[in-house]
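Box 4.2: Ligand-aware structure prediction
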Amino acid sequence: MSIRPRRSVLYMPGSNARAIEKAKTLDCDGIVIDLEDAVAPDAKKTAREQAIAAVTGGGFGGRELFIRVNGIETQWGFDDLTAAVKAAPDGIVLPKVGSAELLEKIGTRLLDMGADRKIRIWAMIETPIAILRIGEIASAAKDSETRLAGFILGTNDLVKESYGRIVKGRGPLLPWIAQTVAAARAFNIQVLDGVYNDIADTDGLRAECEQGRDFGFDGKTLIHPSQIETCNAVYSPAPNEVAEARKTIAAFDLPENKDKGVIRIEGKMVERMHADMARRMVSIADAISSRNP
Ligand SMILES: CC(C)(COP(=O)(O)OP(=O)(O)OC[C@H]1O[C@@H](n2cnc3c(N)ncnc32)[C@H](O)[C@@H]1OP(=O)(O)O)[C@@H](O)C(=O)NCCC(=O)NCCSC(=O)C[C@H](O)C(=O)O
Ligand SMILES: [Mg+2]
């Protein structure tokens, strides 16, 4: 089982050259250079040029590199996509995806452009229509030409579009969060949680990271370097959890347990599915410790 850590994925505006440069030194697993909502209309062209120069220039080590383009229907979308394809980041993030057809259309366009096969597509789930069609959108991953690798939740836009409010604990969003994670898992794609806007509130960030982790997210998107440490800590399996996982795997590997579906370890019932969960946890822990930032 090979897993790439995506505990912490930091956004930065493509227009902010200092932030892009600083990202090369930060302990995050991924970086999203944003051309969309964090960039004012007058700065769109500069942001695109800076994003492309940064990706092409490299220097980001093992951090996964994403460019978030403007929606393809906007005046900037097509030029952003064309430029991103040339720069060839690991992922292109599409904002406000509302249908599987859009992903198919983008997939065809990437093929026509001769885009490097390594470029994956990440769909932002941030509109009510995306929530209503979440299973259908995730099912686009069955068609490899869509290159759909994962979902990124856009909680700011979701709250805006639903006329809701951002509240501690995210009560109003929980059904949508659950739907998004379930759809991603059903079609075997990754899923990253939305951002936490209150940069100074470390306790609130920790609570939200824990909530997202417990829902099953692979990691969280972030907006400020100060959020990385907390997020990495929450999304890294704890040493005692990893030790327990290794014990579970070893127990099922014993010859006497080879044909058993369930065993008792230190007083607890453990089934083979727990061994599968343990293997996943160990893979994540190994991937984190062997990563090269
Ligand atoms: C939110 C900010 C505008 C705050 O900026 P500022 O007050 O200037 O930050 P600091 O002075 O605290 O910065 C300290 C140093 O850290 C660097 N920095 C700051 N932010 C970043 C960053 N995101 N990436 C890399 N480096 C960063 C500063 O350059 C300072 O460094 P130094 O010069 O060495 O002192 C700002 O943090 C920011 O712009 N954040 C990202 C905003 C963004 O990209 N938003 C888009 C995605 S959020 C979203 O909406 C998701 C989704 O679509 C949804 O709908 O929910
Ligand atoms: Mg958004």
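In the box above, the bound molecule is magnesium ion. The radius of gyration is 20 Å.
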